[in-house]
Amino acid sequence: MGYQIEYRHLKYFLAVAEHLHFRKAAEILYISQPGLSRQIKEMEESLGVKLFERHNRNVKLTAVGLYLKTELTKNLKSLDGILHHAKLLEDGKDGQLNFGYVGSAMQKIIPELLLSFTKTHPNILFSLKEMDNNKQIEGLLAQDIDIGFVRLEKAPRGLELYPIVKEPFCLVLHKNHPLDATNFKTLSQCKEEHFILFDPEYSASYYEKVMEIFDGNGFNPLVSHNTIHAGSIYKLVENNFGISIVPKSLQTENNANIKFIELTKIPQRTTLSVIWNKDNQNPILGKILSLIHKEIIT
C-alpha cells in the first residue's frame, strides 16, 4: 500500500457514494473533480479494492463499495458524535442530547424530565424539535436525534420502544357548543359534525386508533381538515370550522374559547412511548433513559 487512509478519504468516498456523481460530490466538498478522483484512487489502491464501477458518465458502487458505504455511514456518525462531545467538554459542557417529539410530549413529559435531569446534570446542552413519527424514525436511524417521543405500536428494526404514558382521548369543542360534560353520552351525538384531525402522515397508527373510535360509535366522520399541530386544531375549533379528538395530554386551560370532554367510556387509549437507537453511543442517552425508567415509568 503506497498511501495511508486518512479521515478525509472516508469523507470523500461517502460523498461520491451518496451522489454517485464525481462532479456533484466535488462541488459539495469544495474541491476539484480531478482532485476528488485522485483521492478516491488513493483510497482504492491503499485498500487494494475497487469501490466504484465507472462506465462513461455512470458511476455505480461495487459490492465492496456498498458494504463500506453502509458501515462507514454508521460508524462515522459515531465518530462525529465523539468529536462533537469532545468540543462540548472543551466549552464547559458535559454533552448534548437531541430530542425529537410529537407535540403532546411537550405539554408535561419532556419539561418535567428536563427539570429533573438538569438537577444532577446541569451542563447538558439540549436540542428539541417537534417532528412527526416518521421523521423521528429517520432521525434516530441516522443518529441525527438521540431520543424520540412517539405514538407508535411497534419500533422498526434497530430501535427500542418503551411505553411511558397510556391515556384516554378528549373531544374538543367550541366553548358555545351545546354539548358539554353534563349532556354528552356517546360520540354518535357528533355524527353530523365536521371533524378536524391529526394528519394520518403524522402518525398512521394514531390515526387508525382514532378511526377505531368512530367505528365503535357506528359512523364515519366528516373530516373537514387534517393538520399536524395541536395549535392549528384549536384555532380551527375556536373559529367554528369543526370539532376534534386529541389525547388527554393535549388538554389545555389556556384557551377560553374551547372546551374538552374526556372520552372515558370508550375502550381506546393512546400510548406515548420513548424510542431510541440501540447503536447510539451518546453517553448522555443512557443516563436520561435511566431517569425515564426511574421517574416516569415507575
Task: Provide a brief overview of the structure.
This protein has 3 domains: 7-86, Arc Repressor Mutant, subunit A (Orthogonal Bundle); 94-157 and 273-297, 3-Layer(aba) Sandwich (D-Maltodextrin-Binding Protein, domain 2), CATH 3.40.190.10; 169-268, 3-Layer(aba) Sandwich (D-Maltodextrin-Binding Protein, domain 2). It is built from 9 helices and 12 strands. The chain has helices at residues 7-19, 22-29, 33-47, 63-90, 109-120, 133-141, 204-216, 230-238, 283-297, and strands spanning 52-55, 58-61, 95-101, 124-130, 147-150, 159-167, 169-174, 194-198, 222-227, 243-247, 258-262, 270-277.
How many helices? The count is 9
Compute the number of strand runs: 12
Q: Categorize the overall geometry.
A: elongated
Quote the CATH topology of the largest domain. D-Maltodextrin-Binding Protein, domain 2
Looking at the overall shape, the CATH architecture of the largest domain is 3-Layer(aba) Sandwich
Approximate strand percentage: 15-25%
Strand order of the largest sheet: 4-3-5-12-6
Q: What's the N-to-C terminus distance?
A: 57 Å
Class by SSE composition = alpha/beta
- Mind telling me the CATH superfamily name of the largest domain? Periplasmic binding protein-like II
Order of helices and strands: HHHEEHEHEHEEEEHEHEEEH
Oligomerization state:
single chain
Give start-end ranges of low-pLDDT stretches: none
Mean pLDDT: 88
Tell me about the biggest sheet?
5 strands, mixed
Summarize the amount of helix as a percent range. 40-55%
- CATH class of the largest domain, anyone? Alpha Beta
